[in-house]
Write a sequence for this structure.
């Protein structure tokens, strides 16, 4: 890879796979900012969270090389992609890791299931500026046009300002008109009625994951869900330290 | 299930599979406290994080039924097990979800990769008191004897006191003598040299996940890693809200 001096090195992955429309858009945009290496799963790995492949080995294959762009597909999860890229593919540490653009929102509790955000948490864990981009539509034909200038603007601001240690960004866009940006917190809520039960030709039951998200605080205007429902892009600063510091004192009073 | 009045209902899972030694120990212990339903993966699902099965359906099968105990195996991930149990198996909401006892520590950043802790976060997300137990040995022959009275004591204290909303517990024990309990925070550190490269008989490269954990703050005495290395059980109160609240003001100053 012949990087020009002062051009940032940007590592891209996703969880929809190397051939998903969203990652092509993100790659095109990032090539306006820096040299790009894509290491993305060789197929859909949605809802893979921070899963790692431990029971069998993984591989990667170069699928494209041109000025300013190297693309690889990988047989693992999004988190595997980042680990493999950092350990075995890129020659020096990327300035930025971006993941997406995911087809489907990763707002609220979805952040803990998302493979897109799994890769972002992994980048952050490695001390690299990391951002996840998602759009609130699962359609393969979703129109990213309105989101694109914001993706560029947010990325440039992130590269200029950096982020606090252990912090990454979870960015979600509404599908359609965009009214602006809101710095938000992760909305409280939960998925309900999560399975559809069916019966196979042998009479045995099987279960498909489905359900819908129930917002526990629909009135709160500072959440990512509120932002999306009101036409704003939500930016949730997200951390990899899950410690509930505020609970430590309470538990210290337990009788052991 | 014929629950006695006032006996808590305890749901158990793990990521080592329904037949792992650790889950048998945990089941035996929990039967001293309440009625137990086990819904565990039908094989090893280590490092599955909060992964969900979305590309194919899942199933469960009853594998044992006796007084105070129902056991099921499930074809999904640990998080799938909890979702399926809550939606399709238990008749009312469990008082407690416990996961483990995991063969291998889930301290420090391992919390985000762990299937054991994925199930715990899922229980917590559903508003249920949830605890993960792990021991610092991957051996199938690991001796849980020293840990057992602590598992019972911590569980009883948790049932008595409850936990703050959105908070669960990540509990790790050293392998061997136990000096006591430390309420700890998630240690900062990272995995390095993460892959072993091999060549297959066709001359193509493949990569096994391996590596070792590098502690970034070995002197700090308030971390889970310090506790384990000094013979203490670590209890890390852990949250499902990943928002980096302290970073929101900074990002609000960015130029959008």
């Amino acid at each position: 890879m012949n990087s020009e001096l002062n051009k940032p090195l940007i590592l891209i992955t996703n969880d929809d796979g190397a051939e998903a429309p969203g990652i092509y858009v993100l790659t095109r945009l990032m090539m306006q900012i820096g040299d790009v290496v894509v290491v993305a799963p060789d197929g859909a790995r949605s809802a893979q969270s921070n899963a790692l492949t431990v029971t069998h080995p993984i591989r990667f294959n170069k699928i494209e090389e041109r000025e300013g762009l190297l693309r690889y597909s990988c047989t693992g999860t999004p988190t595997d992609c980042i680990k493999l890229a950092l350990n075995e593919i890129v020659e020096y540490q990327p300035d930025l890791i971006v993941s997406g653009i995911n087809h489907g929102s990763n707002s609220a509790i979805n952040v803990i299931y998302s493979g897109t955000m799994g890769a972002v948490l992994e980048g952050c864990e490695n001390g690299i500026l990391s951002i996840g981009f998602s759009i609130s539509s699962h359609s393969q034909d979703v129109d990213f046009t309105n989101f694109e200038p914001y993706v560029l603007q947010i990325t440039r601001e992130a590269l200029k300002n950096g982020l606090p240690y252990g912090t990454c960004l979870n960015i979600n866009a509404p599908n359609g008109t965009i009214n602006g940006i809101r710095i938000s917190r992760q909305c409280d809520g939960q998925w309900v009625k999560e399975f559809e039960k069916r019966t196979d030709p042998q009479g045995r039951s099987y279960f498909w994951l489905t359900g819908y998200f129930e917002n526990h605080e629909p009135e709160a205007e500072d959440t990512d869900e509120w932002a999306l429902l009101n036409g704003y892009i939500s930016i949730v600063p997200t951390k990899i330290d899950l410690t509930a510091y505020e609970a430590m004192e309470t538990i210290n009073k337990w009788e052991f």
In short: Helices of chain B lie at 21-30, 78-89, 110-113, 115-125, 148-161, 224-229, 245-252. The radius of gyration of chain B is 19 Å.
